Amino acid sequence: MPRGRYSLHDPHDHTPLGEEHFHCATGPSGWRYVSQLTTPAGDHAGSVDLTLDDLGRPIRLQLQAADWQVRGAALDGVTWVRTDPTGEHATEGNVPQARAFTGASPAFYVALSRALRLTPGAGATRIRLVGFTSPVLAPRTLDQSWALVSRTAHATDNGPLQVDEYQVSDLETGEQHTVNLAGDVVLSAPGIELEDLESPPSVFT
């Protein structure tokens, strides 16, 4: 069960945004990721709870930020309920063509890699997503393309560590970036740095 800490920063000017303390685990029915977010001053800033089935579909998503909350799942595409800070109003949304959720958390990179199951050199795959970003978790539908550029084994004290390098493109803006994953841990991505890892990443079968 990997457990560790990511530091988060603005990918453009590198302004610190806080930290994400996480643990995650694979199981017979899929994968679960749970984290707590803190501000640069160390105050609580939100949480992420994401569960995938064995096909990489989000069967439960719970996000909390600045008293806003989102609960979602893969249902008729993806469906979610967003609740305001007062708790008096809730709005429901659905995007039938979307396959998954995305956001600032490293969890979403792992989740998308599981949903797509790409092979090196197979070319780019397009995917429609619904994204939620802090502080108000407003939903936005977006299209990305993902390509698995390379898969490399690195020697470690615990045996070979397989690292996957993805090229991710925003199909609206044309912006591209690189994401490096080892199992269910993000090694590097825009705005994300792995600062501490107490145990090796889980190996997906």
**Structural class designation:** mainly beta
Low-confidence stretches: none
Order of the strands making up the biggest sheet: 8-7-6-5-4-3-2-1-15-14-13-12-11-10-9
Distance between the termini: 15 Å
C-alpha geometry? globular
> How many helical elements?
1
Could you estimate the helical fraction of the residues in percent? under 10%
What share of the residues does DSSP label as strand, in percent? Answer: over 45%
Give the strand tally: 15
Sheet having the most strands: 15 strands, mixed
**What's the quaternary structure here?**
single chain
H-E string: EEEEEEEEEHEEEEEE
The Rg value, from CA coordinates, equals 16 Å
Q: What value does the average pLDDT take?
A: 94
Protein name: Glycolipid-binding domain-containing protein
Organism: Streptomyces roseoverticillatus
Description:
With 205 residues, this protein is mainly β. 5% of the residues lie in helices and 60% in strands. The protein has one helix and 15 strands. The longest helix has 10 residues, at 107-116. Strands 8-7-6-5-4-3-2-1-15-14-13-12-11-10-9 form a 15-stranded mixed beta sheet, with helices on one face. The chain has one helix spanning 107-116; strands spanning 3-9, 16-27, 30-38, 44-53, 58-65, 68-73, 78-83, 90-95, 100-103, 125-133, 138-154, 161-170, 176-182, 185-189, 192-197. Strand 11 and strand 12 form a beta hairpin.
